[in-house]
Amino acid sequence: MNVQELSQALTDAFSTQLQSNVVVQNDVFGEVTIEVLPKDALEVFTTLRDDAGLKFEQLIDVCGVDYSEYGSVEWATESTSSTGFSRGVEPATGARLRFGDDIEATASGRPRFAAVYHLLSVTHNHRLRVRVYCESEAVPVVPSVIDLWSSANWFEREAFDLYGILFEGHPDLRRILTDYGFVGHPFRKDFPLIGHVEMKYDEEQKRVIYQPVTIEPRVLVPRVIRDDGRFDSSAAAVLANSAAEKTDV
Prior knowledge:
Blueprint: H1 3-13, E1 18-25, E2 30-36, H2 38-50, E3 58-66, E4 113-121, E5 126-133, E6 141-143, H3 152-163, E7 166-168, E8 197-202, E9 207-212, H4 233-248
Parallel strand pairs: 2-5, 6-7
Antiparallel strand pairs: 1-2, 3-4, 4-5, 8-9
């Protein structure tokens, strides 16, 4: 079954439940991505797993996405190159927020948070991406698929930890990468790069304590090696000698 046939099979199976059914085809690989609403997600996932013509037995991954400022660029590039480190260093978006800064809403019109699932059919040797947008930005919730694929356990905990997405029905939804007392969700685009708190060992209390972060963010722009001779030692020597000769004159 090729990607076009898979896309048609999904349309036939979920005629009224798909919000989107997109095929990306190029010379290297083909991809199918569908979008469903949270209220339809469990029914769709169950059919994807159990239907004989689909048979997505394996859940490869679950990840969170923050679509705030989707499509924006970090640096304006009208007068500089559009790639590499020669772009400007003044932030044009909220990717490098400081304390007290507010993130602007996405201009794309889509909900801010989504859970993205990657499925594999071992039987039919095809893959599928399923995107489920969270209806609320303040309290992003999607149903847990742990009862369908047990491998979702740690994946959903990771998305909860890093993005704050709640997976309704998960039996043990707690942080997995950050400390249990960690404040905020690090992969949200409104999370400061320097964090909110730092910890240190307190000599008086003889234990590790948390305190407000004391460092300030700084922009690091690595040097760009350009192929124009400016870093050629022999060329630099010629320029130095030329400058010296002009001074003597």
